[in-house]
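Form 7-S
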Amino acid sequence: MATSVTLLDPSQIAPNPQNPRLIFREDELRALEDSIRSQGILVPLTVYEDRKRVVILDGERRWRCAMKLGLSKVPVILQPKPEPLANLMMMFAIHHRRQEWDPLPTALKMQELEDLYTQQYGRSPNEKELAELGSLTRGEVRRYRKLLAIPEKYRARLMRELALPRSSQKLTVDHVLESFAAASILRRRNVLEDFSEEESLRDALLEKFESGQIESTVAPRKLARMSLLVEEGKLERRSARRVVERIVRDSKYGIEAALQETLADIELDSSVLQAATRLIERICEAEERETALSAETSEKLTAVVKTIRRLLRSA
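Output:
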């Protein structure tokens, strides 16, 4: 295999369509341009010949900068042309460990890697095999598969966000995954009634992330804990739904406020239970002793009965 360095006109070089790096941020490219302008390209591009084209295996960012700077020659190392599956495997192996790619573009390319393997071998790779193909960990494979499972409209939204400078990004892959997980748990535990309510909640959570109303990435997990309280019978489903509906409806209503309201509901329910228990005990005692009630006590008990009936009707 040839390893000598030669010089080529960058206009004769084409980007690799299999490159999992789909996002090229202008601020990062400008920094690389400054380095190339002052020092030149220190690490040659790795390329292969494909008919009359020369295609990049490694170095698309350097190539983009060279084109923008108007360089007439760039150093390259010419490699034999790989097969499609090997090409994508090499792209993963060369790039992924040097500088982590954005998760969503990597997930999309991982799907292509899986499809190419399936076409070549007639079966889908298992998780271990896919991890080896992409020089990934099995945990990364599972994470990328979660991203592939989210609807297209959210993937498109993330791709638009990923194109921004990192300092300007307000929505991340983790924000989406955490919002999806929380909303899904609430639906599975019947706090939310259907998929439309689940979608409304995750949209509201993402908007709160974008506005900065929610700061902690893992904050939606507190909603999942709230649903567990419903499952354990410590919180009424109606109270949990009221809190979730307000999260969706009120852009300024955050998860911490929702949690505090939930805890307040639990505490109030417990206090009402204790008060009702004591009242029943005292009323039973008065009944056993045939105590003559004063007019004021009778009036208060009548008011209590009316209040209880109203409360029970709304329950």
